[in-house]
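Design job #97: recover the sequence.
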């Protein structure tokens, strides 16, 4: 498993290329902008994009989807139904295609990798975390030392607290790959993240 991170768009959203080196296939996670650059990196790595996965539907995570879909019309775009229901406004813009819906507990295959969907709402109603081997793609649920804002339409402080508790109670340690800022580990966040500690009742 190889993970590329590209900071895209005006606020530097983290877009990830999750690559299975055994089959030279890849998933794009949160293409917030700069679709051409994403395609160039995939081409340079010699991987074929098979999946486009959205942790949530805010514009800064989805603005590259329409162009990617035009370039890769047969590649499915996945989104949780609770965010899909909100599409069509400035905060949750349309994707230029109809997403395939995934929900908590679903698994997707990428070559030899298995991607598990964890519903982690609170930043948005349909926010998800994607768990792959020792990595958690947390979108805007869990950040290094912080969490996603809850004051936008569909946000809920109480709900994101429950989501942080769910992540904090996962067994073992994981790399935390968030939608913004740098990466971390789950154990570091359990120990030092005020919001996660609150969520865990510490």
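Job complete. Output follows.
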């Amino acid at each position: 498993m190889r993970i590329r991170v590209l900071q895209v768009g005006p606020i530097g959203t983290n877009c990830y290329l999750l690559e299975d080196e055994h089959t030279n296939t890849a998933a794009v996670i949160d293409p917030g902008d700069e679709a051409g650059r994403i395609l160039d990196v995939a081409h340079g790595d010699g991987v074929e994009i098979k999946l486009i996965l959205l942790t949530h539907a805010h514009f800064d995570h989805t603005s590259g989807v329409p162009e990617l879909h035009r370039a890769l019309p047969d590649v499915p775009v996945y989104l949780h139904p609770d965010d899909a229901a909100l599409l069509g406004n400035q905060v949750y813009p349309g994707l230029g295609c109809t997403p395939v819906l995934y929900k908590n507990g679903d698994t997707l295959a990428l070559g030899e990798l298995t991607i598990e969907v964890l519903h982690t709402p609170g930043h948005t109603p349909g926010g998800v975390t994607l768990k792959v081997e020792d990595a958690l793609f947390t979108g805007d649920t869990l950040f290094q030392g912080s969490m996603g804002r809850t004051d936008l339409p569909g946000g809920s402080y109480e709900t994101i607290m429950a989501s942080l508790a769910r992540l904090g109670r996962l067994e073992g340690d994981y790399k935390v790959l968030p939608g913004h800022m740098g990466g971390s580990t789950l154990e570091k966040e359990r120990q030092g993240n005020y919001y996660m500690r609150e969520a865990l009742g510490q």
